[in-house]
Amino acid sequence: MGNPIYPCLWFDGNAKEASEFYCSIFEESKILSETPFVVIIEINGSKFMLLNGGPEFKFNEAISFVINCENQNEIDYYWDKFSLGGIPGKCGWITDKYGVSWQIVPTILSKLMNDPQKAPKVMYKFMQMKKFEIQALLDL
Q1: What does the alpha-carbon distance between residue 68 and residue 75 come to, in Å, rounded to a whole number?
Q2: With a threshold of 0.85, does the pTM exceed it?
Q3: How many CA atoms does the CB half-sphere of 10 hold within 13 Å?
Q4: Which domains does the chain have, with CATH numbers?
Q5: pLDDT of 1 higher than 80
Q6: What are the b/e assignments for 102-133, b being 16+ CB within 10 Å?
Q7: DSSP assignment, residue 56?
Q8: Please, are residues 36 and 77 in contact by the beta-carbon 8 Å criterion?
Q9: Taking 90 as the threshold, does the pLDDT of residue 101 lie above it?
Q10: CA-CA-CA-CA dihedral for 103, 89, 64, 31, to nearest 10
Q11: Based on the number of CB atoms within 10 Å of its own CB, is 82 exposed (0-12), middle (13-18) or buried (19 or more)?
Q12: Which of 20, 38, 47, 131 is most buried by its number of CB atoms within 10 A?
């Protein structure tokens, strides 16, 4: 059974607005279809359903989307975009203006965390950060 699995995100009447916001951030994105209740988008090859479900449910940090970034420019780009009306958290986490949580993480982090000599220092350092600063981690 090779049926694709994709997330459905519950919005309170602003699914179309949110879909346009997300498509404006990711270069490889598009709106696939839309009705007054559901907007289907594709971001970097992944499908998302945005549903106008009403005020009953809210997003929280139990679900987040990870964006792996190759360099500081990418981290800065995504951080700046999601900061518009969003709430920065710690360790690269940010909640966007719709309440959706994102993790903006450097790809080098897994390599640094696999180095037994550097891992404790790296972890201590990034636990103090909001937005990841790659050079500060590499300088340890």
Answers
A1: 8
A2: yes
A3: 9
A4: 1-57 (3.10.180.10), 59-140 (3.10.180.10)
A5: no
A6: bbbbbebbeebeeeeebeeebeebbeeeebbb
A7: T
A8: no
A9: yes
A10: -80
A11: buried
A12: 131
